Recover the amino acids of this structure.
C-alpha cells in the first residue's frame, strides 16, 4: 500500500477513510482532522485558557502534545488515585511530556487528601471504584479550572470511547445520559467550566498511531479496574462490526451528533443540557451538586476528614 | 426448574422475564402477553376486519392460530414468490393451518403475474431479491386489504426481527427509517390499510416455543435469500448481549417505543409518520407511490406486461 500523498510505502492504512499514509503524512492528516473538528464544533475559542485532563495514557498525552504543536498552550491536571505502580508510572510519563512541552501540571493526590487510595475510598462509599473515581475526578478537575482561571477542560476521549458509551446508552435508551453526551458542554459561570473532547471523531487506533509515530511515551497498561467493564464488551462488538463495515463507528457517532443537534434545535428548553449545570450547589463548598452536599464533601464527611482539595504543582 | 404457576417441571425458562413454565402455563403466559400488547397499544380495535400476512414460518402461522384462539377471526394473505421447494412447502403449511382454523387465504402468485419467479423479477429491476420481494409484498398485501375491505394488516414480526432492524437503523442513524419503525401504522383511507405487529414484544424463541408446544406445523427453512443478510449479523450480536444480560432486547425495543412516543408528542407534524401514507399516488393504479408510477406498475411496464394483480382464493 502506498501513501496517498507522497506515494512512498504507507505505514498505516485507514479503511474507514479509504486511505493510507506514511508516518509523516499520517501526522499531518491526523492533526488536520483534529483542527477541523475543533473549528467545526467551536471547541476552542479565541481567548480560551484551556487545561488538559491527563492520565498518562495515549489519548490525553497525545492531545496535550498535539495542542502544543498547534500553538495552543495548555497546562495539565492529573488525579493520582494511588493505585500502586499504575499510578506511579502514569505520573512519570506525564512529567516527561510536561517537561518536553514546557507546561505545568497540577496534581491532586487522592491518598494525601483522603488518607487512603481510591479502592478504599470506594469501599467506604459502597460504590464501585470507577464510580468513586469519576466523582472525585469531575470535582477536582472542575475545581482547578474555577480556582486557577482555566475556562475550558479538554479530555482525550476518543471515538471508540464515545461510541462504546453511546452504544450502551442507546441499547437501554438511558434518557439520563443519551442526549446529554456531546462533543462539548457549555459552562455554568463561576461554578462549572466548559468541557470539550477534540478526539471525539478520532479512533483509538488513530490516536495510538499518532502517539507512537510522534514519539510520545505513554503508559500502555489500562487502569486495572477497567477489566470486565461493559464498555469493553461494547468496544469489541463495535470493533467486529467495523471490521466488516469500515466507517461504522464514525457514522454511528456523527449520525448521533446530527440527531442531537436537531433535538436541541426543536426543543431547546427540554432539559437537554446545552449547559453543564447541575441542579444545585453544595451547601459546604459551593460547587455543583445534585442537591444538598456534593459527592466530594459527603465523602470527606463520611471519612471524618475536614474539607481540603490541595494540588501539587509540577513544572 | 419448576413452573412458576403449578410447580411441575418447567419445559421452558425465560431468563428475560426471570421465570419458567410448563407447556400449559407457557401457552397461557404467551397468549396473555400478546393480548396485553394488543390492548396496551390499541393494535386491534372493535369492528376491525384484520388479515394476517402469512409466510408459512413460525411467526405468521402462530399469530394466525393464536388470533383464532382469542376469538379474532382473520383471513390470510400469502405471496408465492416461486422459489422452488421453499415456496411449495410454505404454501402447504399455510393451507393446513387455514383448514384447521377454518379461514380463507388469498394467494398471489408472482410467477403467474410476472411470468417469472422473484429472482428473475429482481434481475430485471437490477435490485436485490429481498428489495423486489418487499416491494411486491407491500403492494399486493395492501391491495387485497383495500379491495376486499380488510382494514388492518397484521404481520408476525417478532422482537428479534424488530430489534435487529432497529439496531441497524440506530447504528447508522438512518433518519428515513429510524423514527418510522413502530408497532402500528395508521391508515391512509382508501389507499393504505392500517398495519400492526402483535408479536413486537415477543422474542423469536418464545414464538418458536409457542408454535411447537401448540402443535403448529411450520416451515423451518428460512428464505434462501436471507443468508448473509446484515440483520442476521445484528441478531447474533444482540443474541450474545442477551446471553450475558437477559432482557436487553426487550429493553432496547421498549425504550425505543417510549422515546418514539415522546418524539411524536413533541413534534407531531414533523414527518414522523403517525400515518402510513406515501407522498403521492401512482398515475396508473392509484395506489400509494413515492412519486409517478409505483414500483409495482414500473416493474410490469419494464417487463411489458399489462397491469394485473390477481389472487387465488383458498378455503
Amino acid at each position: 500500500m502506498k501513501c496517498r500523498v507522497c506515494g512512498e510505502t504507507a505505514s498505516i492504512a485507514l479503511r474507514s477513510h479509504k486511505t493510507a499514509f506514511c508516518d509523516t503524512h499520517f501526522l499531518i492528516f491526523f492533526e488536520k482532522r483534529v483542527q477541523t473538528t475543533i473549528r467545526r464544533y467551536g471547541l476552542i475559542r479565541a481567548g480560551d485558557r484551556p487545561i488538559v485532563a491527563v492520565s498518562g495514557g495515549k489519548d490525553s498525552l497525545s492531545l496535550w502534545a498535539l495542542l502544543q504543536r498547534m500553538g495552543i498552550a495548555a497546562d495539565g491536571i492529573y488525579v493520582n488515585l494511588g493505585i500502586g505502580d499504575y499510578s506511579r508510572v502514569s505520573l512519570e510519563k506525564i512529567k516527561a511530556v510536561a517537561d518536553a512541552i514546557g507546561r505545568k501540571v497540577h496534581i491532586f493526590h487522592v491518598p494525601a487528601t483522603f488518607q487512603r487510595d481510591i479502592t478504599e475510598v470506594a469501599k467506604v462509599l459502597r460504590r464501585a471504584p470507577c464510580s468513586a473515581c469519576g466523582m472525585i475526578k469531575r470535582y477536582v478537575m472542575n475545581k482547578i479550572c474555577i480556582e486557577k482561571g482555566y475556562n475550558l477542560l479538554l479530555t482525550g476521549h476518543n471515538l471508540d470511547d464515545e461510541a462504546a458509551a453511546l452504544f450502551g446508552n442507546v441499547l437501554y435508551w438511558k434518557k439520563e445520559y443519551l442526549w446529554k453526551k456531546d462533543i462539548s458542554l457549555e459552562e455554568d459561570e463561576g461554578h462549572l467550566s466548559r468541557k470539550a473532547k477534540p478526539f471525539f471523531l478520532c479512533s483509538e487506533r488513530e490516536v495510538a498511531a499518532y502517539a507512537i509515530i510522534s514519539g510520545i511515551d505513554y503508559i500502555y497498561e489500562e487502569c486495572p479496574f477497567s477489566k470486565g467493564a461493559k464498555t469493553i464488551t461494547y468496544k469489541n462488538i463495535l470493533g467486529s462490526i467495523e471490521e466488516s463495515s469500515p466507517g461504522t463507528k464514525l457514522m454511528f457517532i456523527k449520525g448521533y451528533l446530527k440527531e442531537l443537534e436537531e433535538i436541541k434545535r426543536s426543543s431547546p428548553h427540554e432539559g437537554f443540557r446545552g449547559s453543564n449545570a447541575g441542579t444545585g450547589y453544595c451547601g459546604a463548598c459551593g460547587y455543583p451538586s445534585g442537591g444538598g452536599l456534593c459527592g466530594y464533601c459527603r465523602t470527606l464527611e463520611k471519612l471524618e476528614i475536614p474539607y481540603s482539595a490541595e494540588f501539587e504543582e509540577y513544572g
Q: What stands out?
A: Confidence is low (pLDDT under 50) at residues 271-276 of chain A.
